[in-house]
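Justification of resources, computational component.

The compute hours requested in this renewal are based largely on the per-chain cost of generating structure records like the one below. Each record pairs the submitted sequence with a full structure-token output. That output is archived, and it is also reused by downstream analysis tasks.
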Amino acid sequence: MDSASQDINLNSPNKGLLSDSMTDVPVDTAVAAQTPAVEGLTEAEEEELRAELAKVEEEIVTLRQVLAAKERHCAELKRKLGLSALEGLKQNLSRSWHDVQVSNAYVKTSEKLGEWNEKVTQSDLYKKTQETLSQAGQKTSAALSTVGSAISRKLGDMRNSATFKSFEDRVGNIKSKVVGGRANGTENRPSPTGSGSKPLPDPTPF
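The structure output for this chain reads:
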């Protein structure tokens, strides 16, 4: 079985016997040992705390080694499944964006923006601006309607005026003359077979 897929028990006596190729961040216990103890601690309490600190640091190293092994195993599984690096990047970005959305800073910012928006929309200045814009729109619509009615009424008056009717009659007379002239010209046009209805003479035989 692949060692990367095995869970490591922190209480196991073999927990420190991992592969040397795994990432290991050494912990300098000598520096910690040289740090002066806090005043008020007995020698026994100090020794107990140092032992617990060494144990926690050892567990941190083990967890880092386990994490590195799990990451290598995850990369191997993705390679076998044919998952590309781009798909992995998309998943990481999606996960990161989800983490941002559920973060306290994002939630607080969204709440603060909502409060500001509510304050702005409920303010007297915003309401007055909305009312002014609404009244301006209504006045503009009424003015356009009045202009349209005036133009329609003016056109109606022009059609009913004597000048317009006289011009319309003249156009009608000109049209009648043109149409009548074309009809008379067609009737007076000579026939291709001769003048009038006189038949053509029979051809003389040879």
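The chain has a mean pLDDT of 75. The helical segments are 29-34, 43-81, 85-101, 104-122, 124-160, 162-187.
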